[in-house]
Amino acid sequence: MEQRFVVEGQIALNKLSRVQDYLCGDSGAVTIHLSFGKDLQGIQTIIGSLDAKVFMQCQRCLKPVALAVSVVVNIGVGYKESALKALPTEYDPLLQETPELDLWMLIEDELILGLPIVAYHPSGECSIDAQYQRGDADASDKQATNPFSVLAVMKGEDDQIS
Ligand SMILES: [Zn+2]
User: Fold this and answer.
1) In angstroms, rounded to a whole number, what is the distance separating the alpha carbons of residues 60 and 144?
2) CA of 60 to the centre of ligand 1 (A)
3) For residue 77, what are the β-bridge partners?
């Protein structure tokens, strides 16, 4: 079997400037495990995972919410558009125009793709929930109620920190 080249380690999130645009707070790190090599069909692949605990802004209360982000990386590399089209569908296609892979950019891209589009506190942990629990919402609170708040609660349950 062909030898694969493995990259493992951690990168501080504050070094990933493009990822920072999506986060609030720059603490934490992403744990990387990526393996580079060819599969049995000779396709260059990048396989592994990125795991990070990040803070994003809760879209209900606008305070930071901690999220565990886990990205499965399963990339097939093509050096031409035609090669990309021929890749088996199990791979996420990556067009690579130069022999040198920009690993840094790849990690940023994959991590950004793995972030939720919007983040919410899990139900019961959002400070907006707490306000509603304290008493009757007055008129201004009602106006502020987002029509998607029910969705937000459901979404929040998926975002529990592991
Ligand atoms: Zn919140």
Assistant:
1) 10
2) 5
3) 94
